[in-house]
Write a structure and sequence with these properties.
The complex is a heterodimer of chains A (161) and B (141). In chain A, 30% of the residues lie in helices and 35% in strands. Chain A is an alpha+beta fold and 161 residues long. In chain A, 32% of the residues are buried. The chains are: A alpha+beta (161), B alpha+beta (141).
Chain lengths: 161, 141
């Protein structure tokens, strides 16, 4: 009789321990899922909010034959600020970023929605009358200062005479 | 008894999990709702933003370029967002005409005036959302 009670008690404790573990596992999984859901929604918002457009005249992109510097005018056409630090630009297969590009905002200030960033970078040996491909890419910045979303645009162009 | 306790613990675990996720789901749904509204708004504004370059005239004597543009869309165009590219280069300009110094209202025409160092061959104007028009049949006189 006593041994049966002990056996039942052990069975009860084991069952409680196992189900508690399962319940804690459920809680962890659900909590993790909630975190992922929030992050994905925030990322999606960033992707939609961050946008840019290279507004150069495609038939006359400024190019300095002496220095090999090309100039892109890039407008923030999204609804959040864009990161200048994370900007990467490319022309004719040559990509530049960071200290390799010079930047300034038309009218000053930050790269806020509607503002145009003027960026120059070195790409040697471009020729008049030849079609080239270029692109620009950067990240959006939320009000909290976090990076959110990717903004990019491409352009088929010729250099100015 | 053990079965009842097990079910109870599992149910408490599930309810606790659901309570924990509720806040995250609310935040995510709010984000998605705002994202959808923002996307719809920007697409509508982009669709409704339109303009035309009526004419471009370069005065050889005064070196002044006059570009007439008309807001042919249904959205207001902020003048601060207007960019003038002459032969591919961003060029500063003054605005003449229109009822406001800050906006070009639908149906209104304004003139962008810029003094250049030489006769231009191409003029491109860019406004909000990157909407752009180019003209290369400039009149000279």
């Amino acid at each position: 009789m006593a041994s049966e009670s002990i056996s039942q008690l052990i069975w009860f404790i084991a069952t409680v321990l196992i189900t508690t573990s399962v319940a804690l596992l459920f809680i962890n999984i659900i909590d993790d899922y909630g975190g992922v859901l929030t992050e994905r929604a925030s990322r999606l918002r960033g992707e939609v909010s961050a946008d840019l457009e290279i507004i150069n005249d495609p038939m006359a992109v400024p190019y300095d034959n002496t220095t090999g510097n090309i100039t892109f005018y890039i407008k923030n056409t999204g609804s959040i600020r864009l990161s200048i630090v994370d900007l990467v630009v490319a022309a004719n297969g040559v990509a530049r970023g960071g200290s390799e590009i010079s930047t300034r905002i038309l009218g000053g200030g930050e790269w806020d929605p509607g503002k145009v960033l003027v960026t120059s970078f070195n790409v040697g040996n471009l020729t008049r009358g030849v079609d080239y491909h270029g692109w620009a890419q950067t990240s959006g910045i939320t009000e909290g200062g976090k990076l959110a979303g990717t903004a990019w645009d491409t352009i088929e162009f010729q250099i100015a005479s | 008894m053990a079965t009842t306790a097990s079910w109870l613990i599992i149910m408490v675990g599930l309810v606790t999990g659901l309570l924990l996720i509720q806040h995250d789901v609310d935040v995510a749904l709010d984000d998605l709702k705002e994202t959808t509204e923002e996307w719809k708004r920007s697409q509508t504004m982009l669709k409704n933003t339109d303009f035309e370059i009526s004419s471009a005239f370069y005065n050889n004597t005064t070196s002044a370029l006059r570009v007439n543009i008309k807001n042919s869309g249904s959205e207001v165009i902020p003048i601060a967002e207007v960019v003038l590219l002459v032969d591919g280069v961003v060029t500063s300009f003054n605005v003449s005409g229109g009822s406001s110094s800050s906006y070009i209202y639908p149906g209104e025409s304004v003139t962008l005036i810029s003094t250049l160092s030489g006769a231009p061959s191409r003029v491109r104007v860019v406004v909000s959302w990157g909407v752009a028009r180019t003209i290369n049949n400039i009149r000279y006189g």
